[in-house]
Amino acid sequence: MSANLELPPIVEIEDSLDSVIDFFETQGWTDGLPFLPPTRARVDEMYTYVDRAPDEVIATLAPRNGEATVEGIAVNAVMAGCRPEYLPVLIAAVQAIAEEPFNLNGIQSTTHPCGVLVLLNGPVGRELNVNSGYNCFGPGWRANATIGRAMRLMLINIGGGIPGDGDRSTHGSPVKFSFCAAENEAANPWEPLHVEQGFDLEDSTVTVMACEGPHNVNDHASVSGRGLLTTIARSMRQPGSNNMSSDGGQPLVVLGPEHAEAIAKDGISKDEAKRHLWEYSRLALEDVASDWVDVRAAAAPEGTEVPPLLQMAEHWSRINVIVAGGAGKHSCWIPTFGRSGMTDTVTRRIERADGTPVRSVYDVGSV
Predict the structure, then answer these.
(1) Are residues 10 and 133 in the same domain?
(2) Residue 267: pLDDT above 70?
(3) Residue 229: which domain range?
(4) Do 132 and 250 sit in the same domain of this protein?
């Protein structure tokens, strides 16, 4: 076991799966689902495709400020059912959630029902068969299910995000069990997300976002790209969204391949699509409850004017747009944890210990 669990390195338990699961449950080390016991042999096997020592500290995770060592990450990966090939992805994801702009402490302790979306771009995601097509946010793919689940287990066991204690979410959400997918780059008519953010096309990256679950947008009627974008934007216009404020946040729009193709076919660039989404999702204060407006007015500094519009982002460029999913005239939008400054999207390249990019996980040898 990892030292981050505040136990001796090895815990001896009766040799039965039920006993192990029951013991871990009483310690608060699980997500409530059955898991693989992290035996020494299984944990050691997880190091096959990394070139880092087990005791190397990758990051500290809030709110407990637990040290996420390579061993600690491997323990939780085993419990989640990950293959050893997934460990380089999880290391990059841990580095990403620990970056200050992501605000892990706020995300772990908020009453908002956000989970951590782990989004892959580049060849490693394809190599590991991370689903980017049909049902990409649902069941059926080991990589998606177990990478996302390992993230949640680390947030509990290393970060201390225990429901009702470190994790104060009012209702929670199914995305807190597992939330992982890849962008469908083959169906994307524009630059994929990681290239837009300055990485090379052949780089493999992990992007983390503090998100609610996907909100479906069904549009079988629009015959133009701008019509589709207007439907999506109007669906985003929700007063109760954490993103909806005077300065907005950083919401995610996931275009289904059919919608993306129709939008691009009309000659609309990704930047133009973002501008349209931003403009048409804004909400006039007169369209929300008057007492909510009165609270905003009372909170405004003396002599300042309450902004007449609520918007999903302070600037159109803050809206993230990706392409994912299978056939069907559906897209979705995914609200994030908060307004500008509360959380930012963070992307990390999957790298070796020396900082060079990983092109294939099978090229990285064990320590």
Answers:
(1) yes
(2) yes
(3) 213-335
(4) no
Same domain as 261, residue 204: no
> Cα separation of 348 and 128, whole Å?
17
Among residues 269, 61, 293, the alpha carbon closest in space to that of 158 is found at: 61
Q: What type of residue is 133?
A: G
pLDDT at 321 over 60: yes
Q: Is 293 in the same domain as 356?
A: no
How far is it, in rounded angstroms, from Cα 98 to Cα 96?
Answer: 5
Cβ(94)–Cβ(351) below 8 Å: no
- Euclidean distance between CA atoms 231 and 331, whole angstroms: 10
Q: Quickly count: other Cβ atoms within 10 Å of residue 54's Cβ.
A: 18
Q: Partners of 207 in the beta sheet?
A: 119, 347
Q: Are 118 and 148 in contact, with CB atoms under 8 Å apart?
A: yes
pLDDT band of 295, cuts 50, 70, 90: low
> Is the distance from CB of 40 to CB of 46 less than 8 angstroms?
no
Q: How many domains does the chain have?
A: 2
For residues 252 and 128, state if they share a domain.
no
- Look up residue 332 and give its DSSP letter: E
Residues 347 and 263 in one domain: no
The length of the chain, given as a count of residues? 367
pTM tops 0.70, yes or no: yes
CA distances from 265 to 188, 233, 237, 268 (A): 12, 19, 26, 7
- The answer to whether the bond into 63 is cis (omega within 30° of 0) is yes
Rounded to the nearest 10 degrees, the angle between the axes of helix 225-236 and helix 270-280 is: 50
